[in-house]
Amino acid sequence: MTTVDDHLERILAAVTPTRARRAALHEAHGCVLAADVRATVALPSFDNAAMDGYAVRAADVAGATEQEPVTLPVAADIPAGPGTPAPLPAGTAARIMTGAPLPRGADTVVQLEWTDGGGESVAVRDVPRRGQHIRRAGEDVTPGALVLAAGTIIGSAQIGLLAAVNVARPPVHPRPRIAVLSTGTELVEVGSPLRDGQIVDSNSHGIAAAARESGAQVQRLTGVPDEPDAFAKSFYGILSQVDAVVTTGGVSVGAYDVVKEVLTGAGSIRFDQVAMRPGRPQGFGLVEGVPVFTLPGNPVSALVSFDLFVRPALQRMRGLPATGLPRVEVTLAEPLRSPAGKRGFVRVTLDGLGADGRPAPDTLARPAGGQGSHQLTSLAAAQALVVIPEDVTEAPAGSRVAALLLGDVPGSILSGVGWADAHADATGPPAGLPTR
Ligand SMILES: Nc1nc2c(c(=O)[nH]1)N[C@H]1C(S)=C(S)[C@@H](COP(=O)(O)OP(=O)(O)OC[C@H]3O[C@@H](n4cnc5c(N)ncnc54)[C@H](O)[C@@H]3O)O[C@H]1N2
Ligand code: MOO
Q1: Predicted confidence (pLDDT) at residue 433 exceeds the cutoff of 80
Q2: CB-based burial, 32-58: b 16+ in 10 Å, e otherwise
Q3: pLDDT of 65
Q4: Which of 135, 152, 328, 427 is close enough to 359 for a disulfide, judged by CB 3.0 to 4.6 Å?
Q5: Are residues 286 and 391 in the same domain?
Q6: What is the position in ligand 1's atom list of the atom closest to the CA of 186?
C-alpha cells in the first residue's frame, strides 16, 4: 500500500506545464499566461473626451450660469475616428464625441446636457471644473508597465485588456489535451438501448467533464472492450496526440483487467494500492513521456481519484499552483466511520454555509447518501468530501474535520471549447481538437 500523499507527490514530480507558445486571443481564453505582458503602448493612447459635448478652454466659459449662459462659436466637429483635430482657437468650442481626440488648446469638456446643443454656436449653462471629462493619455496603462503577470488565468477581462494594449498573441501555457478512455466490454454509449449485463459508460462522460472543468481540451474514447489488442490500439493511437491520458477501469486484480495487463511495464507506469477509500487501485506513470493516469472503474472511485490526483496535475500542466480542491474545516452533524489504515473521503452535504457561500465555523456536514463506490447519487448531491485520517475509524458527531470543497476548483473554467468524442472503432484522426 502506498499513501495518498506519496501517490500525489509521485504524480506532481512527473508532470510539467504545457510548453509555452503564443496563441490567438480566442485560444488564449482560459489559458494561463506563461510570461509577464508589458505594455508597448499607453492606454488611453491620446487625450480624449469622456462625454459627448463641447471641448473648450475652461477660462472661456468662466461665470456661465443657467440664467446667464456663455455662448461660444462652434469652430469644429470632432467625431471619434482617425486623424488629429485642428487646434482649438481661443474663444471657441468644438463639438466632440465620447472617445474623440481632444483638440490642442482645449482643457475641458462640457457635457452636452449643460449646453443648448447648438451647431453654429453653443450656450454653456454651467461652469465646468478645468480638466473635467477628459481621459488623459496613459492614465490606465503607461508604456512599459506590467499589464498582466505570468501565472494569470486569462478570463474575459484579461482578454479585453490584452486586446486593448494591442497584444494579439499572448504567451500562454496551452490547455492540456487530455484523452479519456473507458474500458469495459459491458459498456455502451449513453442513449443506447441496454441488453442484459450491459451498463452505460458514465465514467468517460463524468471524467471528461471534470477534465474540461479543469481547463483541459478533452478527447473522449468510449467503447474500448476488455481486450488487450483493442485497448492497446486505442491507447497507443491517441498517446502521441495528447498531453495526458486518463483511463478508467481494468486496474484491479481480476481477469480481463486489461489496462493493467497492457500497461504493466510500459514507461514508468506503476500500479499501486493507495490507502484510501474510495479509489484504492491506482496507476500512474509516463509512457513515451506522456503522463498516464489509470483510475479505478467504480464510478465514484474514478471521480474522487480524479479530484485528488488528476485535478492538481492538470493545474500544474496549465501553469497554476497544484492546489487541488480547496480545503476547509467543517463540523460533523453525525458520526462518520472510515476503514482503519485508509484515508476516507466521505461525500457530505453542508448545512449553514456563511453568507459568502463558504463554510462558516458552524457549518455542519452530513453524509450525502450511500457511500458505496458505485453510488453516484451521493456524489452528485455532495458539496464536499470529508477527509477522515488513516488512523481514525470513527469521527464523533461535533468533531471538527477537514473537508475538500467540490465544484470550486481554483482555476476551473466551464467552456464549450475542446470537446470531442470518438468511439474506439472510429477510423482516422480524431476530429475536433486543434493540432500543434
Ligand atoms: N477481488 C478484488 N476485487 C476488487 C478489488 C480488489 O481489491 N479485489 N478492488 C475493488 C475496488 S476497490 C475497485 S475500485 C474496483 C476497481 O476495478 P477496476 O478498475 O478493475 O474496474 P472494473 O473492474 O473495470 O469495473 C469496476 C466497476 O465499475 C464499473 N465500471 C467500469 N467502467 C465503467 C464506466 N466507464 N462507466 C460506468 N461504470 C463503469 C464496472 O461495471 C464495475 O461495476 O475493483 C473492485 N474489485
Ligand atoms: O477503492 Mo474502490 O474505489 O473502494 O471501490
Answers
A1: no
A2: bbbeebebebbbbeebbbebbbbbbbb
A3: 96
A4: 328
A5: no
A6: 41
